Amino acid sequence: METLQFLFDFTDGAGSTIREMGVFVGGSVVEGLPPGQTYFTPTEVANPGALLMLMHREPIVRVASERFAAETVISL
């Protein structure tokens, strides 16, 4: 089993409503993004890869004044 942690920094998804979180494997992002960037909008994803895990949750409205974290456990 592996524990996965989802971390949203202050501006990650600000103004968006989060209803699902997932883990994709084998994907890639577009070139030229800042080093260390971990949150990507759909236009920043070149190839999403394969969906490994999907988690549905109560909606959370993201605001830029708060961080958000969630954890889940998966069996590989």
Task: Please summarize what this structure is.
This protein is mostly beta strands. It has a domain at 1-27 and 63-76. Helix content is 0%, strand content 53%.
Structure description:
With 76 residues, the protein is mostly beta strands. Helices cover 0% and strands 53% of the residues. It has strands at residues 2-8, 17-25, 28-29, 45-47, 50-61, 68-74. Strands 1-6 form a two-stranded antiparallel ribbon. The model has no long low-confidence stretch (mean pLDDT 92).
Summarize the amount of helix as a percent range.
under 10%
The parts where pLDDT drops under 50 for at least 5 residues are none
- The strand line-up of the biggest sheet is 1-6
Largest sheet entry: 2 strands, antiparallel
Beta-strand residue fraction:
over 45%
- Which structural class matches the secondary elements? mainly beta
Characterize the overall form.
globular
Q: Gyration radius, to the nearest Å?
A: 13 Å
Number of helices: 0
Count the strands? 6
Give the SSE layout.
Layout: E1 2-8, E2 17-25, E3 28-29, E4 45-47, E5 50-61, E6 68-74
Antiparallel strand pairs: 1-6, 2-5, 3-4
Core attributes:
76 residues, mainly beta, two-stranded antiparallel sheet, 6 strands
